[in-house]
Amino acid sequence: MPLSKLRDKIDAVDQQIIDLLAERLKLVGEVGEVKTEHGLPIYVPEREAAMLAKRRAEAESKGVPADLIEDILRRTMRESYASENETGFKTINPEMKRIVIIGGNGLLGKRFVEMFELSGYQVDILGRANWDQAEQICSKAGLVIVGSPIDVTEDIISQLTYLPEDCILADITSVKDGPLQAMLMAHKGPVVGLHPMFGPDISSFAKQVIVYCDGRGEDKYVWLIEQMKIWGSHLYNVQAPTHDESMTLIQALRHFTSFVYGVHLQGVDADLEQLLDLSSPIYRLELAMVGRLFAQEPALYADIILSQKGNLEMIKRYHQHFADAIEMLENADRDEFIKRFESVTDWMGDYSQLFLDESRVMLQQAHDKRHYEDK
């Protein structure tokens, strides 16, 4: 009976928490309207950092762990950013003509269609079904964004020789140098390469990184960069060749190793259910990353991995490091293993501790969601 009464009180407090969260989301909606009216970005890092610091101090003064309140607020803010989408965004360039998104029916293309429409722009979608009308549709465009699959992007771009000279031509593929050069060749007007560093399953553009590579006529597309900042995105400027070199490590190599790991699991007919049951959060997340890869479109990852020659060269270098490490194991050279381990630790410097701290938070969140059932 005492336990039952205490649980009833906890249920009542939980209900109050739900009511307060509902009120907070309502206020967020009103904040979104004000931001839209005044053209303010959905995400302001300084405001968020100051608010979290204040709440952490307030929590500690009341005996509540600071990390607990920060976890709650960060999760709440993520939902808040998504809610602010519903109020729309200020139109940075109200004089802009129609926006055409080639591949706007694709998953990522649809997100950009949605965001531009929420920002007050008129958007046309161009795809296979209406490609015979491409020249007519693009003749009214002030911005054309190519969001086609990587393997046909440059071919699509090469056909866009009829764009109005003042039209901005952009792409949103994960490879930048080839498409950027193709755009500069096909079009005489403003050109910019974009790479959204996220997938279509995001709830908000807030805090999402969008890379942009300058091509031509930067002053003509500066409004586009500012518009994406209003959405809450972080815009990162980099040269196209440098971008592609980084993507070799960030995307191609990691996707390939996940692919091989999945192939290996299938080859040994691993019991995935048992692996999950026995895995700590870190290994569960690693399995999740492999599973995430195989839950998506295979052509996309084939194109990313095969998109540039440098990817293969880097994968071969990785393979050689694997071979060297295997030789070390065959020789049972424990001292050499420790030496190499410490060498990499020294090379990483302070990033080792940063990665440890960040992963600890993610692992705790993954552990909190774990649910056990009696068997």
From TrEMBL:
Pathway: Metabolic intermediate biosynthesis; prephenate biosynthesis; prephenate from chorismate: step 1/1; Amino-acid biosynthesis; L-tyrosine biosynthesis; (4-hydroxyphenyl)pyruvate from prephenate (NAD(+) route): step 1/1
Domain Chorismate mutase residue range list: 1-88
Keywords: Amino-acid biosynthesis, Aromatic amino acid biosynthesis, Cytoplasm, Isomerase, NAD, Oxidoreductase, Tyrosine biosynthesis
Top-level taxonomic group: Bacteria
Main location per the UniProt record: cytoplasm
Residue spans crossing the bilayer: none
InterPro entries xref list: 6-PGluconate_DH-like_C_sf, Chor_mut/prephenate_DH_T, Chorismate_II_sf, CM_dom_sf, CM_II_prokaryot, CM_T, NAD(P)-bd_dom_sf, PDH_C
Localization, UniProt: Cytoplasm
Residue stretches making up the Prephenate/arogenate dehydrogenase domain: 97-359
Protein's UniProt name: T-protein
